[in-house]
């Protein structure tokens, strides 16, 4: 599998071959059909709640009114409208009847709840994540670029089990935070191998294998973007490579965080087969101020952004460093492109596959 290409070589000539396995408002207020003795269709404002409870979830408290005749599923739908956690994802502690979890058709009035009671909920924001991997409406060229049909890419992005994998990473994975995130900045996520340096060639030191203009590029990008590294290798190797390239010690920019192979997910993609990919939904789920609108990812492998193709820019691979280091100007040009697009409100509307044509006359 090509993704297991991540053999990381040390950057010095001793080149130890370490093969690392990548590795509605639709709250269904109960109908008042019990109140047949009076008006059969009373105005809505006569629909008074019988009691009020609160849902505690994810650091917030959400008041929910319980009406006469309300069933558990109707209650859950009311919770959904407040929290965006889908009913089938909600686990509401204390929503029990005789010690067993309440079923959807039960009446809320049968559960022994008291007024102003607080109920703890465990659940995830399914809708947010679904949105994070949603197919954009206007990206036919990108799809052609990926050489897979629109139907297939929809299939990849909406597969529920992939969303669940992303949710699990959001809950459990911890990026290595190095420097504070800066409010208002966009986010640039960078691959390392063949993007920032040629990890397969042998050199006396990191500088020989570094992609030309790397530091210039990072200094320039840092003005408008928080910088993150996402590499399909282990954290140990990311740290080592960044140190050898002099990225960690450069005083003119800061890397915000590192993400390693453990945050990747395995998907079965049309035309690719089973591959590990880098779903940006993990970052968006963990740090909500980063979104598909303000994030761009550079990688030399397109499949790494299969879950979010509208946010990926496939950079030309930097290989054979000794032959190409005098002529490779990708980072010089991309620094200008990043500067050009930094003013935009929504980066996901761009076709990054055509980045070289963004400026008339090219870069
Ligand atoms: Mg790479």
From TrEMBL:
Broadest EC class assigned to this enzyme: hydrolase
Primary localisation category: nucleus
Region (Disordered), start-end ranges: 1-50
Ranges of residues in domain Ubiquitin-like: 51-122
TM spans (from-to): none
Key word Hydrolase present: yes
Catalytic activity: O-phospho-L-seryl-[protein] + H2O = L-seryl-[protein] + phosphate; O-phospho-L-threonyl-[protein] + H2O = L-threonyl-[protein] + phosphate
Subcellular location field: Nucleus
GO cellular component term, pick one: nucleus
One of the Pfam families matching this protein, by short name: NIF
Keyword Nucleus: yes
Name of this protein: Ubiquitin-like domain-containing CTD phosphatase 1
Natural source organism: Hirondellea gigas
């Amino acid at each position: 599998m090509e993704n297991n290409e991540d053999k990381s070589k040390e950057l010095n000539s001793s080149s130890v071959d370490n093969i690392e396995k990548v590795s509605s408002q639709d709250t269904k207020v109960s109908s008042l059909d019990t109140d047949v003795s009076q008006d059969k269709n009373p105005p809505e404002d006569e629909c008074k709640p019988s009691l009020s409870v609160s849902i505690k979830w994810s650091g917030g408290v959400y008041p929910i009114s319980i009406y006469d005749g309300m069933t558990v599923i109707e209650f859950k739908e009311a919770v959904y409208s407040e929290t965006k956690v889908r009913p089938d994802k909600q686990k509401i502690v204390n929503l029990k009847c005789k010690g067993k979890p309440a079923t959807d058709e039960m009446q809320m009035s049968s559960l022994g709840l008291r007024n102003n009671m607080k109920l703890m909920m465990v659940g995830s924001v399914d809708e947010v994540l679904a949105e994070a991997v949603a197919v954009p409406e206007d990206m036919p060229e990108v799809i052609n670029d990926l050489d897979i049909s629109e139907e297939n890419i929809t299939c990849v992005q909406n597969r529920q089990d992939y969303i669940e994998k992303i949710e699990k990473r959001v809950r459990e994975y911890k990026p290595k935070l190095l420097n504070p995130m800066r409010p208002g900045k966009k986010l640039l996520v960078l691959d390392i191998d063949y993007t920032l340096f040629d990890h397969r060639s042998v050199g006396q030191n990191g500088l020989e294998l570094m992609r030309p203009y790397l530091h210039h590029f990072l200094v320039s990008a840092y003005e408008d973007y928080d910088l993150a590294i996402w590499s399909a290798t282990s954290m140990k190797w990311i740290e080592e490579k960044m140190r050898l390239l002099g990225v960690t010690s450069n005083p003119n920019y800061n890397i915000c965080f590192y993400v390693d192979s453990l945050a990747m997910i395995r998907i079965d993609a049309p035309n690719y087969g089973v591959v590990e990919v880098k779903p940006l939904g993990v970052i968006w789920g963990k740090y909500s101020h980063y979104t598909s609108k303000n994030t761009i990812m550079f990688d030399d492998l397109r499949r790494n952004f299969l879950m979010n193709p509208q946010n990926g820019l496939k950079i030309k691979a930097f290989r054979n460093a000794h032959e190409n280091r005098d002529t490779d100007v990708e980072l010089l040009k991309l620094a200008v492109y990043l500067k050009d697009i930094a003013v935009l409100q929504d980066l996901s509307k761009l076709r990054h596959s055509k980045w070289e044509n963004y400026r008339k006359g090219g870069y």
